[in-house]
Amino acid sequence: MTEPFLTRLATRLAVLALCMVAAGCTVNPATGQQSFTAFMSPAEELRIGQEQHPKILEEFGGVYQDPGLSRYVGSIGQLLVRTSETPNLNFTFTVLNSPLVNAFAIPGGFVYVTRGLLALADNEAELAGVMAHEIGHVVARHPAQRYSQAVAANLGVTLLGVLTNTPHISRLAGLGANLYLSGYSREQEFEADMLGVRYLSRARFSPHAMSAFLNKLQANGALQRSLKNEEGRDPATSLLATHPRTAERVERAIASASLARVTDPIVAKDIYLNKIDGMLYGDDPEQGFIKGRDFIHPKLGFRFRAPPGFRLFNSARAVTAMGPNGARILFDSAERRDDEPMLYYLTSRWANFLQDTEAIDVNGMQAATGHSLTNTQKGTMDVRLLAIAFDARTIYRFIFLAPVSEANSRSVDFRRTTYSFRRLRRGEAASVLPRRIKIIMVGSGDSLRSLADRMPFEDFRLERFQVLNGLASGQKPAPGQMVKIIAD
Ligand SMILES: [Zn+2]
Asked: Is residue 399 part of a domain?
């Protein structure tokens, strides 16, 4: 046992002892700061976490169904937690079935990584780096602080939801996305890095794995920006946007954490690649696809297009499109009763305060629409509701929201989106296949080009292959090495 470890242990015991003496102690054991419990008790954090957890699953594609992978990710998380200042705190680690590249934590020790992020990591150490950083946020109680701020800012929109009997309306304000994905401050990031690199080195990973992976995320961000079919994906949902930091800043955290040197650190590349072999890559056809501004649902058999300047987000129960100046579109479904006319549904079952209601035809489907002015925290908004009868049992619904000052110009956009809603043609659904990660061994005759060309993409194959495998430009995988490709 090394000397610094004993010193740290002594400090921790001293803090614990103080806490036991002073009832209601509010010193955070990791950071030594006082104010963390001022706004929320640990029990309250846990209650909020348990309440939010199902909503996170709904928002981010649910749990990725691979029990072996889940256990593996959970075991790395628990290993790191045991090295933290709160080794007995209950943590729940979840792999989300989302193609977004992200990881985040909510109050109560709930930590999430997406399969999109797992696809980019190349070894256990890189994954551990991401998780150690999130655990650092939890130990420092940053998610609870962020939660309090986000809730206070979004109360106005919740009122609108009550008014229109639309439970998912909180997404119109981006409550879902903002609440879980809004960025931390630089100070909080630095603190999470300081704690994260501490846990990493105690668990015998190299703390530099954290900065190495950040560089890969940056390369991926640059690639995503140049892919035109990703145009609609919001960069605000990436890990880099929600955790504003650079490899250089992580290195600074490593330097100031004065860590003992990790000799022979764990990398575990082959174990890691074996665990993600066969993992779903990109969108899951079961949940519908976002392609630029188009939303296509092969399983349910429809598609529509958001206006220029809008970005689409997909979740299990609703699709949201975020536009400029608070303009929003929310799309979801409802149950249709007894072939009811849409005008009846719109005015009697959905909302009873609409003006200018009318029955319309949307590409052969019966529909009805109407609008109203509503006061929100963001000012007076024009709210247009649209209900489309898809079949005898199913209604698809749009809510279009725009600041009243822009209502006229937006109404052209919203009308276009309305009439872009249509059934998929025969064969249109079958052309969308799920893609998976495949681990292969580099052969002696393989070149960068030949490896990249095995992937079913129309463009940027080489760049995608390099980013996926964390290869710097000019770097070539050696024969016998394991690499990732994407396969249908
Ligand atoms: Zn962070």
From this structure: yes
Contact between residue 437 and residue 278 where contact means Cβ atoms under 8 Å apart: yes
User: How many A from CA of 104 to the centre of ligand 1?
Assistant: 8
Q: Are 349 and 363 in contact (CB under 8 A)?
A: no
> Ligand 1 being an ion, which residues bring their Cβ within 5 A of it?
189, 192, 243
pLDDT range class, residue 236, cuts 50, 70, 90: low
Distance in Å, CA 184 to ligand 1 centroid: 6
Q: What are residue 385's DSSP bridge partners?
A: 370, 399
Structural domain boundaries enclosing 333? 287-423
How many angstroms is it from 189 CA to the middle of ligand 1? 5
Which range has the worst mean pLDDT, 263-267, 397-401, 421-425, 429-433?
429-433
By the 10 Å C-beta count (0-12 exposed, 13-18 middle, 19+ buried), 371 is classed as buried
Residues 376 and 400 in one domain: yes
- 7-49: per-residue pLDDT in tens? 333 333 333 333 333 333 345 656 655 444 446 788 888 998 8
Choice between 33 and 464, residue whose per-residue pLDDT is larger = 464
Distance 476 CA to ligand 1 centre (A): 32
What pLDDT score does 28 carry? 61
Please give the tally of structural domains in the chain: 4
Quick one: which of 136, 171, 168 has its CA closest to 154? 171
